[in-house]
Amino acid sequence: MAISKRHEEIIKAVVDMYINDKEPVASSALQDYLDVALSSATLRNEMAYLTKQGFLNQPHVSAGRVPTNKAYRYYIENLEEDTKLSNVEKEYIKSKFDLLDRDSQRFLQGAAELFSDMFKVTTIIAPPLDKDLKFANFTILRTGKFDVVLIGVTSRGDVHTRVIRLNSEIGNTDIQQLTMLLNARLCFVSWEDVDKHYFMALTKELSKENDAFSQIIRGALALIKIASTQTIHVRGEQYLVGTDDFEYNIAEVLKVISDKDVLKNIITPKLDGISVVFGDELPIKNINNVCFISKRYYAGSAVSGSLCVVCPQTVDYSKLFACIQYFTQLLSQTITGTERNL
């Protein structure tokens, strides 16, 4: 398949024009857009060639051409990275970012909501998947006669909390002993390596003496399990519903987003760069004009999560790519405490 420099310019122009106007591109309009010394007839022939090659489609016999997913893919892969965020734009994004709650259980959720609200797109953030995540310390704080807060700090420095409403009162001495037990038996142990038979027998025995003991132990086990589970945060679905781009297939798009097992495979980039998945590449059929744009952020040298935007194909890719690039840098820098150039 021979694609000349002229063909490249036509593909780029048709995609740009279709993104701007969302109307089939006629050869006469393309001639004005390109501002080159080519006749409308010559451009029609070139567009016909690109149609045969699968880059363009003609919805109706008398209509202009629209880009196919193959054209969008070619456009993205040859996109010049000349769009940069200005210092003013970066400062604005960072000023909003700095207001996020840094609690590990709310930070990513808030970040997904922030990106969604700022750029009016459906945003998905998957936390770093670390199957070997371990807790380095547990603390039990009494907040009421029958209430305690269990605080766990991971080896990465993340803080996880769990509020427990006790069935019976518990003394300070008992709290100290339980704290020592949790730190002795559950610190630096992954969820997969927890001796579950031991704790099952222990909680059963302690519940005979005071059910509050077993409640706190079960709470600590739940904290470890939840921390090692990847909870995907989805925000801004209203931006899908509020556009005409998905008038006929919104149910299928939402079905993909709600299926977490399918979603994980889509939003996890294979490489460090920005990944784009189009509708015809999804495991669910009959989804047109949708793309999933993803990029990794890092929580360590080899531990990463991902940020994904779900949007119509008719978006300003250069601008959105720049926003995603900068936002994932902020995520990595906040979590690791060091700046990482991606």
Radius of gyration: 26 Å
> What's the order of the H and E elements?
HHHEEHHHEEEEHHHEHHHEEEH
Poorly predicted ranges? none
Biggest sheet record? 5 strands, antiparallel
Shape descriptor reads elongated
User: Count the strands?
Assistant: 10
Please count the helical segments: 13
Structural class: alpha+beta
Helix content: 40-55%
Strand order of the largest sheet: 7-3-10-9-8
β-sheet strand percentage: 15-25%
What is the CA-CA span between the terminal residues? 34 Å
Query: Overall pLDDT, averaged?
Result: 88
Question: Would you mind describing this structure in some detail?
Answer:
The protein contains 13 helices and ten strands. It has helices at 5-21, 27-34, 40-52, 69-77, 87-97, 107-119, 172-185, 196-209, 211-227, 238-241, 250-258, 260-267, 317-336, and strands at 56-57, 66-67, 122-126, 135-142, 147-154, 159-165, 233-235, 275-278, 290-298, 304-312. Helix 1 (5-21) packs across helix 4 (69-77), helix 2 (27-34) crosses helix 3 and helix 8 runs antiparallel to helix 9 (211-227). The longest helix has 20 residues, at 317-336.
What are the salient characteristics of this protein?
342 residues, 5-stranded antiparallel β-sheet, 3-stranded antiparallel β-sheet, 13 helices, elongated, 10 strands, alpha+beta, single chain, 46% helix
